[in-house]
Amino acid sequence: MFLFPPTSQRPDRSRPHLAISEIECRRGGLDYPSWLILDEYNRVQVDEAYDLVTTTTLGAFSSAFVRKIAGVSKETAARRRLRGIICK
């Protein structure tokens, strides 16, 4: 699973990012405004990913927004600007 970091701080223009719309923030359980930074991701094994506070879903983005994230991250990878960090 690839996890892109969300932020409530406007990212530097030099970094690939996506603004998260108000409705997607509500769906994802994030404050508005928020952005996703798309040049760096955390890579985790799904069976090792856990939340220490709760096991309930915090939120989820729409499939259309997830496709948009995938498109920008694919473009970023093609430019060799995408960096993964393996989390254990």
Structural account:
With 88 residues, the chain is an alpha+beta fold. The protein contains 2 helices and 6 strands, in the order βββαββαβ. The protein has a 3-stranded mixed beta sheet with strand order 1-5-6, with no helix packed on it. It has a 3-stranded antiparallel beta sheet with strand order 2-4-3. Strand 5, helix 2 and strand 6 form a beta-alpha-beta unit.
**Mean pLDDT across all amino acids:** 87
- Percent of residues in β-strands: 15-25%
Strand order of the largest sheet: 1-5-6
Element string (H = helix, E = strand): EEEHEEHE
Task: Give the helix level as a range of percent.
Answer: 25-40%
CA radius of gyration is 13 Å
> Unreliable stretches, pLDDT < 50, 5 or more residues?
none
Number of separate strands: 6
Shape: globular
Main attributes of the structure:
three-stranded mixed β-sheet, 6 strands, single chain, globular, three-stranded antiparallel β-sheet, 88 residues, 26% helix, alpha+beta, 2 helices
Give a nutshell description of this structure:
By secondary structure, the protein is an alpha+beta fold. 26% of the residues lie in helices and 23% in strands.
